[in-house]
Amino acid sequence: MSLLDSVHGSYIHTRRVRVLSDLLVQSVPPDCSVLDIGCGDGLLAADLAARRQDIKVCGADVLVRPSAAIPVRKIDGQQLPWENKSIDVAMFIDVLHHCDDATALLREAKRVARQAIIIKDHNLTGLLAHSRLSLMDWVGNARHGVSLRCRYFTEEEWAEIFTRLSLRIEHISSDFTLYPWPLEWICGGRLHFMALLRSGGS
């Protein structure tokens, strides 16, 4: 294990999984199937499944890690090989800013999800926001071969995307602390949000 893996894993990733799992435990509807799109190592989804034994979780990713903590199906990053309305909840945890076309992949998630879509992603807001977010992405993902497209959206751009896809925001929050101090002061706050979306149309 490299020094970066060790430091990031113990200082950042473990806390991030715990904080996001706390949020998802409260957000995911009861007795449902969850598809974690872009699940990475699967640790977050596995922790969620362990804490919410009423749900069933599987993963999808363009890069399937042999050591993933959940079953993962390989996808091409553009289309989802699931039937219409065949799962209850689709979630994207820090995934959409890596996509060539975030709107198209969200449309696919809307097609396959019966109940809801959960998104944790970034807001392009504040001083040097793009530089700070790009650095976070590089530290967390580059060594795993993840494509770093760094296509971040403002709050207004996210709202436009959701409106275009007839997705209604049921709940959205930036009121969580992902990182230990002093990293939270640099990399946290309104740069992050989690939203629960429901279909508002066909």
TrEMBL record:
Q: Which UniProt keywords apply?
A: Methyltransferase, Transferase
GO MF terms here are:
methyltransferase activity
Name the species this protein comes from: Candidatus Electrothrix marina
> Which protein are we looking at?
Methyltransferase domain-containing protein
Its GO biological process annotations read: methylation
